[in-house]
Every structure is written in structure tokens, then in C-alpha cells.
Amino acid sequence: MKITIADNSGRLPKTDLLIAFTLADESPSLPTGVRFPAALHKQIKGEFRELKHTDAASGTKASVLSIGLGKKAELTDERARRVGALAVQRAQALGAAHALVWLDPKLESTLGSRAFGQALIEGALMGSYRFETYKNKKKADKLKELVLAGGGKEFKTGAKHGRTRAEANLFVRDLQNTPGNDMRPRELAEAAQKLATRSPRITCTVLERADMKKLGMGALLGVAQGSIEPPLLVHLVYRPEKSPARRGDKAAVTKIALVGKGLTFDTGGISIKPAGKMWDMKYDMSGGAAVLGVFHALSELDLPMEVHGVVPCSENMPDAAAIKPGDVVRAMNGTTIEVLNTDAEGRLILCDALCYVQKKVGPDVIIDLATLTGAVGVALGHEFAGVMGNDSKLRHDLQLAGESVGERLWPLPLEDFHKDQMRGEIADLKNISAEGLGAGSTTGGAFLWNFVGKTSWAHLDIAGTAWGSMNRDWVGGSLGSGFGTRLLLEFLERRAAL
Ligand code: BES
Ligand code: MN
Ligand code: ZN
To answer: Has residue 244 got a pLDDT over 60?
Structure first.
């Protein structure tokens, strides 16, 4: 199915299914001359997500579907994304080969042409996602083309933008959903290298075990030593076209580092996890995938700042060679760590990645994303990721960006005393806090805090939101959500506009 953008002025193109929207307590916003049969017209209330369909509209040969937008004052980008997803899903269910979403110019002004264009295409693309790589019998899709018809240039600009973002989201979901046997460190790193071929402004370096040894990444190497799959560390760089000095704007001198946990399968190691839901630990690379997703979009955007993406990739396996509870490892900055629980491995691979970022990149801002703790799902569920850090402005900016894209964050506490709780008995740090202290997600954040120096830093614990979110039409269910990529893109673009 392809999605194309068209104008809503002039003659209505031929289509099997005409989709229009209805605001609460208003008449359906149909093209001039098109009318619902009187009896059906009366039933249309325009409540959010209300669907009313007829094959007997006057003024057109197409069948016509009204989708409720809800109250005008309650119309948001998220609602527009949801109706965009509903539009494509209903068109598929109704068996149309060609469908046209017609946006009334009067309606467009409520959210703005650009925002509408962006949200509708995001919803339509993300809402039609399927993961069928492993199905012999793939679902047949009768829908060949979905046309989004809106007002002119702004709508088109928004749609172009939305497509870039949605495609990045889908790219991330594919990485997440791919099972651990086909998404090992090498495949994740390969995906990163492929991204670099999409733009001359993106480069990708991959560090191997020997490089890590030289750099002294004992924590990452410690996690990886129980697996026959060698660990890799991905370093993507996006450089703006014009040098910061030549552009002369402030945003351009910013260097932002995104760090993502790329644990391609987490058995827990010797501190092994129960069998029950161990399979979903294939999602433990979701933070890394989200970082890769940003670079997927960066090749199509023109952001003025330098962006670094660093993803430590490893498996966490139990094995004769595996790291044992109580073992001490030494991170790249010399810090020694008692590994009291081998299942708290995310922070171990991340701490070396953070050291690496400090030493090799020296960014102004670090944002890390990780499926770090089950506790974040207990506290916040699948709809909110936890955000922690040492810079309240950064945290707040991220939260606002998340609100606008429908990937929401909620702050969790992180204070000096939490950091103290991570002091080790025989080493500098331990990787878990004492039993009974609770605040499991904060503990993970507190551990990482030791490795960011004075750099402005935020940590997003996405263990709950990376998969299994509730059905919001464009996302939801047991599969990966692609959480984080669109949020980070929104954050970067807002910063670029400063
Ligand atoms: N990858 C897990 C966290 C996780 C749990 C992600 C559930 C998604 C769903 C992480 O490596 C882990 O095992 N964390 C431990 C930390 C504990 C040992 C301090 C946890 O949450 O139990
Ligand atoms: Mn673990
Ligand atoms: Zn993990």
C-alpha cells in the first residue's frame, strides 16, 4: 500500500472509499455536493473515533466513511494520529483498493495544515504496521493506495515530515520484533552500518572486542563474556552539512550524544530469569534500536547540530565463562564495580558506553535510553517511560517533546543519597542496591549517574513503554512500539529551532 498526498481543492479524484471527518455536534465535513442518507446523517454525533459508513451517499459513487474527531477544543496531534490510523485500518477492513482521506479546509484550521498533514500520515503509516517476516502466509492487502488530500503546501510539508518520522518508527519496530537468533549484536551493528549508507552526513564506526580491551571497557566485556556472540559497540555520527561556525547559530555548536542499550537477549546470566516471560527479553535492545531510529530519520532532515549515537551491543547469557555474582569488573574510567546480580547488566554495558562518550565525544548533552528495569513497568505501566537526570530543564524539555508525539515521560526521583546507595563493599560501586530499599528504577539511574561527570544528562527507562502499550490505534499490543525515536527527533528539532 502506498500513501500519497494530494490537494483538497478542485475536483474530487475517483476513489472506492471517501473518508471524511466529523467534529462533535457538527455535520460531517464532506466535499461539496456529497451527502449521507438522511437517516444515517442523524446518527452521526462526531464523537472521537465514531465510525459511520454508507454505500448510498449522494453526490459520489464512492462509499463514504465518517470518522469522529471529538470536540473541537479537545483536538490534539495524538487524536489526529489516531484517526489517521483508523482511516487506513477501516479502508483495509472494508476491502477498498483505493481510499481517499478528504480534509475539509475549514477543519484544517483547527489544528493547522502542517500539524494535520504530519499527524495523519504518521497515524496511517504506523497504524498499518505489521510484522510478517516469519509468516509463510502473509495477510493479503487489497488496499493499493491511500490518498491524503489536504490544503496545499503546509499540509505537504507536514506530511513529508510525518513520513520521515513514521518510517523511522517502523524501522525501530522491525528491529525490536526480530527474534534474538536473528538480531544478535552483529545484526544490530549491521543495521547501524547500513544507516550510514543513506547519507554522506552519517558515519558509523563499530568497535570490536579487541578495541574494547584496549579502551578498558571491563564492564561491557564482563557482560559479554558468557556469550559466544562477540560484543560490538556502535558509534554513529551525524554532522550537519554546513560547519557550525559558518552557520553561526547557537544550536549548531551543540553536540548531542544519544546512548542506547543494545542487549540483544537478556537471560539474566548466572542470576538467571524465570522461564515464564523470558522470551520478551528480545526487546532488551529497544533503547539501542530507538537511537538507530533517530539516524534513520536524520538522513532525511537538515538538523544544525552534531548528533552522536552510541549503542553497546551484547547478549547476556549463562555459561561456564559467564560473569559470576560477586565478580568485580573495571569500567573504562577506572571505576571498579561489584556485580552482585548479573541480571542488572544493562547499567554495566551502558556505563562503559557513557565513559566512551565522555572521552571520545565530549558532548553538551547526553540522553540515554534503556529497557533497564522491570520496576519502571510496575511504577508507570506501559504508557509512561521514567525520566531521570541531573538537569531539570533537559528533563522538562524531553517531557514536553514526548507529550506532543504521544510518547510520554514521567519523572522519577534521583538524588545524591540514591547515588550513595550504589557504593560497593569491596569495590567502588555495586550494580544493585541493598535489598529492601526499593526504588528499583532510580537505582539504575543512580548507578549511571556516576559515569556522566558534569555533563547535562537524562536517562529514560523505557522497559515498560518499548512494547505492550495499550491500543492507541497507531501503536499498542504485544509487539514493539518503537518508543523513543519520535520523541528524540521532536526534542532535537525543537532545540534546532531555538
Ligand atoms: N532487561 C531487564 C529489564 C526489563 C524487565 C526490561 C522487564 C523489560 C521488561 C534488565 O536487564 C533487568 O533484568 N533488570 C533487573 C534489575 C535488577 C536485577 C536490579 C530487573 O528489573 O529485575
Ligand atoms: Mn537483566
Ligand atoms: Zn536487560
So the answer is: no
C-alpha neighbours within 13 Å on the C-beta side of residue 418: 20
Active site amino acids = 273, 347
Does ligand 1 have an atom closer than 6 angstroms to the CB of 476? no
Residue 242 and residue 162 in contact, taking contact as beta carbons nearer than 8 Å: no
How far is CA 257 from each of CA 8, 72, 189, 356, 361, rounded to the nearest angstrom? 41, 39, 17, 11, 8
Of 128, 76, 155, the C-alpha closest to 403 is 76
Does 179-496 match 2-131+139-164 at the fold level? no
Alpha-carbon gap, residue 346 to 262, rounded angstroms: 8
pLDDT in tens, 138-154: 988 899 999 999 988 99
Domain ranges of the chain: 2-131+139-164, 179-496
At the topology level of CATH, where does 2-131+139-164 sit?
A: Leucine Aminopeptidase, subunit E; domain 1 (3.40.220)
Q: Whose CA is nearest to atom 14 of ligand 1?
A: 373
Amino acid at 81: R
- Give the 3-state secondary structure of residue 397: helix
Cβ neighbours for 226, distance < 8 A, ≥ 6 positions apart: 269, 270, 315, 316, 317, 318, 319, 321, 322, 323, 342
Q: Tell me: domain 179-496, CATH 3.40.630.10, correct?
A: yes
Helices 286-298 and 185-196: crossing angle, nearest 10°? 10
Q: What is the pLDDT of residue 252?
A: 46
370 touches ligand 1 (CB under 6 Å): no
